[in-house]
# Entry
Amino acid sequence: MRFTSEASSDGVREQLFSLAEIPGVLWTPAGAAETRPLILMGHGGGQHKKAPGIVVRARRFVAECGFAVAAVDVPGHGDRPKDEEYDRIATENQARVEAGEELAPLLAGFQALVARQTVPEWRAVLDAVQELDHVGTGPVGYWGVSLGCGLGIPFVAAEPRVRAAVLGLGGALASAEAAARITVPVEFLVQWDDERVPRAQGLALFDALASAEKTLHANPGKHALPPGPEPWPRPPYGSGVRAPSPPAPP
# Structure
């Protein structure tokens, strides 16, 4: 792992890094050196490791809970080079949707393909980050919705270090088989009027999770319009660390 830049503000230290060809960012409490819980965050489609929603939540998890947070650019996003094969598939899928095919099955196939690459990449990032003195081998959680859910469910299913997860805006066509192998506590988001992931598919994915402790957060609105920061999303618990009470809404 090679760090390429570092900055601190409001008690949060931000370090950009690269691991092989994977660009990422790590947020930790400034000046802290002890082992702490770590959250790996997966960004949405068309976004990147420092998308506004990722940064706001990451800084909050660090400042309010003392966690470490890491995020990376998935293939074809952010600072990753253009992937011609993925671009070709995305273009073909768009043409098929315009010709009348359903979007959900096409998204499912594409996410399953990309997950074959991202699962081992994220496990390698987790290995490297936990070797750092200011992170260590504490409890691990995962946060990811939309594409971050489609790629995150196979990762959580494959990675025994993950003790809890926040997921959502994903469907059973892409992830039901992997979801059946997840037993850690999960909070799951469904947008009731989701135009990209049919409601029935989101509910089916929640049902497919084998977790004994799982909570469904369903809200009105389209795919890209989830509600404000409370009650969704909270940091993934089940880590032995109690998060502080949320601030009252304005």
